[in-house]
């Protein structure tokens, strides 16, 4: 899948970025970022004058090349690999035996993807004969083999290639979703990094498999597979399929052979080697294993243990039983993405799924469980049925994204599903400020560009609308048909549309064209009035329709009279449309998109009275949080603040959290009562995220003393709560708590470590300098982003003669750390020092000039 690193890291990084960077990221001030420009009528003329229309900042380069599906000349039938890692040189010595046949036309040449190899030999294998050398040419990217004769489509043949893969010699590449693309990764190969295990793992999507074995590295190929992996005797191995043999060798090594009997795409091939603990589980007799660091073996089932339940739920919901021999999940260090859905063996970034018992209390179901569900759903959508080209990527990623809502709905209820829906809609709308693309893309520069919030979050919301349009029974029956008709094959959008049309009997071309093939989303202005026993509901589509369509929108509207709601369903089809809805009296509330289904940016005019009624009568989380956000500016009103206080006992934790935010910096007449309620929540609320938010809200009241609450929170069972207390004390440090804070310095928890860096960045002294030096070496990358800037802040308060090691550390990280957000954090740390060390301005300029990542260079320009 590539569970987007954006989803894991960059969801919280924006809160840390400077305001200027945020404004740029949100597209504020960009040309054409708002609604359609007002156009004046042209003066009469013999020839029409050209009309100058601002081009939206989100419009992509329309001259980008068309990227069709890869032409299939050969079918890759089977791949057998015999590989051995060379840890000292970080090479993989391999022998690949490929079985192929021409797809349709006769072929006398084979072209394979093979990146950065040393090719030792290429042979044709014939039954009962010794291999025959074949002539070939090789440019370090493509291996072009001259076959011994012309082969017909009915003829299979085998070639054997002996090679050495050298991934570290490949040029640097990658994307936001996958930060590196060299395919094969040796982690701490010489055991020189203290506290980090020695591991080997692969990442194949999109074209990384051809960095460690020769293949036809395209998603519209499918192959069965057998991998024999020779490793040291104490190492565990993992690959696709089942372990069919394991033999000890005379040299003390061991060779494990893994076999996948059903065909899959080459990018889904994987291997992993390391000192893993293997925790075993089962589902319907199939092995379900969890590979983790030995230190986390006792919490592995608490993290992964719902996998069998997910397998059961998805199998029943889809009407297609999990189609593979086994399912394994492995946590690895320094993974270049969030997670990846290799067939039968998903790989996870270790910080997503490895937790101490105390940390588990802070892991929400929309954290680890959502990514576990996402990767598992890919075993159907992506592995069993695969997009035929990367331009059809949403046929993989939109479904995996939507599985997160399906699982939340099944396991935790409608409110949990609504939270997923709202969060993901907001994430897409944020990206849409600067980028709007069709979901199915035929024109792009690089297929890595497709792994974005469109393919994931927008795609998932489109599926949610499709489900609402056809109904649950038809939606899942259509998915059953789609999976059965296209199993073990590659598809494009038409196959999905036809499955829905064949199931429902309806022509759904309009829906698939509008939501999959056209860019953008509706921007709606909704108003209503009451006259002559009817509600007049006006819906205006105010998006720029020069580059986006006028959308066809089936929608539900609820009209409330007292405690009774009447629902009306109709279809918006025009840019400006008024609907007359019968109502015997002036309604208490009119709620557009009552079910919260539309993928749209909706500006709905509602009075404070309507919003208060909505909050008290709302049907679920979505409507409650909408009402709270609409009433925030009125929180000083007695009725509003009382409603927010009442909502602090709502059954759903995220609603309680939203109510807390509504009371931030409260200035109304109930001040003492509100503060008392906030303190009670901070001390007694059962959900850690809500307790931590209550502490954060308390800290928004300037010049008020809540030290006793913060002191209690420093020893809370939740790291989030303790971190919130440290953040609060950073703003208003209390001498009595400094020793308590210092006792937490050795933590490895990311939230706590980030908070400590903020505390010492604002309040530290020379005594805390060594702490920053130590933690800048062992902190996780997502912590370093914040910690390094705080390190610069601290150094401003220590004598210049003491700063040398710290400045050098920041410069080295700014120039060479593999993670761009760590380089950005180090750059910001150096920038903090330019006031007292003006010579660093030249250093920063040199760092900017030598930085190769264009997005990072753009961020540098926004650092003040």
From TrEMBL:
<keyword id="KW-0482">Metalloprotease</keyword>
<dbReference type="GO" id="GO:0006508">
    <property type="term" value="P:proteolysis"/>
</dbReference>
<dbReference type="InterPro" id="IPR050344">
    <property type="entry name" value="Peptidase_M1_aminopeptidases"/>
</dbReference>
<keyword id="KW-0645">Protease</keyword>
<dbReference type="InterPro" id="IPR014782">
    <property type="entry name" value="Peptidase_M1_dom"/>
</dbReference>
<dbReference type="GO" id="GO:0016020">
    <property type="term" value="C:membrane"/>
</dbReference>
<dbReference type="InterPro" id="IPR045357">
    <property type="entry name" value="Aminopeptidase_N-like_N"/>
</dbReference>
<dbReference type="InterPro" id="IPR016024">
    <property type="entry name" value="ARM-type_fold"/>
</dbReference>
<dbReference type="InterPro" id="IPR027268">
    <property type="entry name" value="Peptidase_M4/M1_CTD_sf"/>
</dbReference>
<dbReference type="GO" id="GO:0016285">
    <property type="term" value="F:alanyl aminopeptidase activity"/>
</dbReference>
<feature type="domain" description="Aminopeptidase N-like N-terminal">
    <location>
        <begin position="80"/>
        <end position="268"/>
    </location>
</feature>
<keyword id="KW-0732">Signal</keyword>
<keyword id="KW-0479">Metal-binding</keyword>
<feature type="region of interest" description="Disordered">
    <location>
        <begin position="27"/>
        <end position="46"/>
    </location>
</feature>
<dbReference type="InterPro" id="IPR011989">
    <property type="entry name" value="ARM-like"/>
</dbReference>
<dbReference type="GO" id="GO:0070006">
    <property type="term" value="F:metalloaminopeptidase activity"/>
</dbReference>
<feature type="signal peptide">
    <location>
        <begin position="1"/>
        <end position="19"/>
    </location>
</feature>
<keyword id="KW-0862">Zinc</keyword>
<dbReference type="Pfam" id="PF17900">
    <property type="entry name" value="Peptidase_M1_N"/>
</dbReference>
<dbReference type="InterPro" id="IPR042097">
    <property type="entry name" value="Aminopeptidase_N-like_N_sf"/>
</dbReference>
<dbReference type="InterPro" id="IPR001930">
    <property type="entry name" value="Peptidase_M1"/>
</dbReference>
<protein>
    <recommendedName>
        <fullName>Aminopeptidase N</fullName>
        <ecNumber>3.4.11.2</ecNumber>
    </recommendedName>
</protein>
<dbReference type="GO" id="GO:0008270">
    <property type="term" value="F:zinc ion binding"/>
</dbReference>
<dbReference type="Pfam" id="PF01433">
    <property type="entry name" value="Peptidase_M1"/>
</dbReference>
<dbReference type="GO" id="GO:0043171">
    <property type="term" value="P:peptide catabolic process"/>
</dbReference>
<keyword id="KW-0031">Aminopeptidase</keyword>
<dbReference type="GO" id="GO:0042277">
    <property type="term" value="F:peptide binding"/>
</dbReference>
<dbReference type="Pfam" id="PF13646">
    <property type="entry name" value="HEAT_2"/>
</dbReference>
<keyword id="KW-0378">Hydrolase</keyword>
<comment type="similarity">
    <text>Belongs to the peptidase M1 family.</text>
</comment>
<dbReference type="GO" id="GO:0005737">
    <property type="term" value="C:cytoplasm"/>
</dbReference>
<dbReference type="GO" id="GO:0005615">
    <property type="term" value="C:extracellular space"/>
</dbReference>
<feature type="domain" description="Peptidase M1 membrane alanine aminopeptidase">
    <location>
        <begin position="306"/>
        <end position="515"/>
    </location>
</feature>
């Amino acid at each position: 899948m590539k569970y987007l690193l954006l989803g894991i890291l960059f969801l919280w990084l924006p809160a840390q970025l400077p305001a200027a960077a945020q404004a740029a990221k949100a597209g504020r001030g960009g040309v054409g970022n708002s609604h359609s420009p007002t156009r004046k009528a042209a003066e009469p003329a013999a020839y029409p004058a050209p009309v100058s229309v601002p081009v939206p900042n989100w419009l992509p380069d329309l001259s980008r090349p068309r990227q069709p599906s890869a032409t299939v000349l050969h079918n890759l039938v089977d791949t057998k690999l015999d590989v051995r890692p060379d840890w000292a040189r970080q090479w993989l010595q391999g022998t690949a035996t490929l079985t192929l046949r021409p797809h349709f036309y006769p072929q006398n040449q084979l072209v394979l993807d093979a990146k950065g190899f040393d090719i030792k030999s290429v042979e044709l294998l014939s039954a009962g004969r010794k291999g025959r050398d074949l002539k070939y040419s090789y440019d370090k990217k493509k291996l072009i083999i001259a076959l011994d004769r012309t082969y017909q489509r009915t003829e299979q043949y085998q070639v054997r290639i002996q090679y050495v893969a050298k991934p570290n010699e490949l040029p640097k590449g990658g994307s936001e979703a996958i930060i590196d693309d060299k395919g094969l990764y040796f982690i701490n190969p010489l055991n020189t990094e203290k506290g980090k295990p020695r591991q080997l793992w692969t990442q194949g999507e999109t074209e990384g498999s051809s960095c460690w074995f020769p293949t036809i590295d395209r998603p519209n190929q499918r192959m069965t597979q057998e991998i024999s992996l020779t490793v040291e005797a104490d190492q565990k191995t993992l690959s696709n399929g089942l372990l069919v043999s394991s033999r000890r060798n005379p040299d003390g090594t061991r060779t494990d052979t893994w076999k996948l009997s059903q065909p899959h795409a080459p990018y889904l091939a994987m291997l992993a080697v390391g000192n893993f603990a293997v925790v075993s589980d089962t589902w319907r007799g199939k092995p379900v294993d969890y590979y983790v660091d030995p230190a986390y073996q006792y919490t592995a089932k608490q993290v992964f243990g719902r996998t069998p339940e997910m397998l059961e739920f998805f199998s029943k919901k889809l009407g297609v039983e999990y189609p593979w021999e086994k399912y394994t999940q492995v946590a690895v260090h320094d993974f270049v993405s969030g997670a990846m859905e290799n067939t039968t063996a998903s790989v996870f970034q270790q910080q997503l799924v490895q937790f101490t018992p105390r940390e588990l209390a802070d892991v929400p179901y929309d954290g680890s469980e959502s990514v576990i569900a996402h990767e598992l759903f890919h075993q159907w959508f992506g592995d069993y049925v695969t997009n035929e080209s990367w331009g059809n990527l949403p046929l993989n990623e939109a479904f995996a994204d939507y599985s997160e809502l399906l699982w939340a709905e099944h396991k935790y209820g409608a409110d949990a599903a609504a939270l997923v829906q709202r969060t993901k809609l907001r994430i897409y709308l944020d990206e849409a400020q600067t980028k709007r693309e069709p979901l199915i893309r035929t024109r792009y520069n690089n297929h890595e560009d497709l792994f974005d919030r469109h393919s994931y979050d927008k795609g998932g919301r489109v599926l949610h609308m499709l489900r609402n349009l056809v109904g649950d029974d038809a939606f899942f029956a259509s998915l059953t048909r789609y999976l059965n008709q296209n199993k073990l094959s590659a598809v494009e959008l038409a196959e999905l549309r036809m499955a829905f049309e064949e199931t429902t009997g309806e022509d759904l071309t309009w829906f698939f064209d509008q939501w999959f093939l056209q860019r953008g989303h509706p921007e709606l202005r909704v108003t209503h009035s009451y006259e002559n026993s009817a509600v007049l509901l006006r819906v205006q589509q105010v998006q720029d329709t020069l580059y986006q369509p006028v959308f066809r929108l089936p929608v539900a509207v609820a009209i409330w009279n007292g405690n009774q709601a009447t629902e009306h369903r109709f279809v918006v089809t025009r840019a400006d449309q008024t609907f007359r809805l019968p109502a015997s009296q002036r309604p208490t509330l009119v709620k557009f998109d009552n079910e919260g289904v539309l993928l749209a940016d909706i500006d709905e005019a509602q009075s404070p009275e309507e919003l208060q009624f909505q909050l008290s009568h709302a049907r679920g989380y979505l409507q409650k949080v909408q009402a709270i956000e609409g009433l925030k500016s009125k929180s000083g009103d007695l009725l509003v603040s009382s409603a927010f206080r009442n909502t602090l006992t709502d059954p759903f934790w995220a609603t309680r959290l939203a109510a807390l935010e509504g009371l931030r910096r409260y200035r109304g007449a109930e001040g003492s009562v509100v503060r008392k309620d906030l303190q009670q929540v901070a001390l007694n609320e059962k959900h850690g995220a809500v307790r931590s938010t209550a502490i954060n809200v308390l800290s928004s009241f300037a010049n008020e003393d809540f030290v006793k609450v913060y002191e209690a929170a420093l020893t809370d069972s939740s790291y989030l709560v303790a971190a919130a207390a440290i953040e609060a004390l950073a703003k208003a440090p209390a001498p009595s708590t400094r020793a308590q804070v210092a006792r937490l310095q050795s933590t490895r928890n990311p939230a706590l470590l980030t908070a400590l860096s903020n505390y010492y960045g604002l309040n530290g002294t020379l005594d805390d300098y060594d702490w920053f030096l130590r933690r800048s070496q062992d902190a996780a990358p997502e912590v370093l982003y914040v910690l390094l800037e705080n390190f610069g802040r601290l150094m401003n308060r220590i004598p210049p003669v003491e700063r040398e090691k710290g400045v050098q550390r920041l410069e080295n990280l700014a120039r060479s750390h593999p993670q761009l957000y760590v380089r950005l954090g180090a750059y910001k740390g150096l920038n903090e020092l330019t006031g007292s060390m003006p010579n660093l301005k030249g250093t920063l300029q040199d760092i900017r000039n030598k930085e190769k990542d264009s997005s990072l260079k753009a961020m540098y320009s926004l650092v003040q």
